[in-house]
């Protein structure tokens, strides 16, 4: 083979039309991700982009939107306990899961009902 995959540039979650303010509040204000400027031609489609470490998380508008209940991004965090306290303070429900060895993780939903996994690898 003359090609190889080098990683993931971004993950996209679908959302309903006019989702931008809810996305900014949840991903930007509550989770603390920095919003990224979309190229002018793509702004017309709606949605919003955020940085997530060295990657990007895109919220894209989908007609006839249905939330993803099984497929999901898994975001790695440092100090998951602090994040869990913050989510509790912000009234964001989550469920802890201890089925993955050497990881502490939780599941939650974004404002549109999409499943999100957050984990911290344990040494």
TrEMBL record:
What SUPFAM superfamilies would the database entry show? Glyoxalase/Bleomycin resistance protein/Dihydroxybiphenyl dioxygenase
Task: Please list the residue ranges annotated as the VOC domain.
Answer: 7-121
Q: Where does the secretion signal sit in this chain?
A: none
Q: Which Gene3D superfamilies match?
A: 2,3-Dihydroxybiphenyl 1,2-Dioxygenase, domain 1 (3.10.180.10)
InterPro entries membership:
Glyas_Bleomycin-R_OHBP_Dase, Glyas_Fos-R_dOase_dom, VOC_core
Q: Which Pfam families match?
A: Glyoxalase (PF00903)
What is the name of this protein?
A: Glyoxalase
Tell me what organism the protein belongs to: Thalassobacillus devorans
């Amino acid at each position: 083979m003359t090609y190889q995959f080098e990683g993931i540039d971004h993950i996209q979650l679908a959302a309903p039309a006019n989702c931008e303010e809810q996305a900014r509040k949840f991903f930007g204000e509550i989770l603390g991700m920095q919003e990224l400027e979309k190229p002018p031609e793509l702004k017309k489609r709606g949605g919003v982009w955020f940085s997530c470490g060295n990657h990007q998380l895109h919220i894209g508008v989908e007609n006839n939107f249905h939330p993803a209940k099984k497929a999901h991004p898994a975001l790695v965090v440092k100090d998951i306990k602090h994040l869990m306290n913050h989510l509790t303070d912000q009234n964001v429900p989550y469920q802890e899961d201890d089925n993955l060895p050497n990881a502490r993780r939780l599941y939650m939903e974004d404002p549109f009902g999409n499943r999100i996994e957050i984990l911290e690898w344990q040494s």
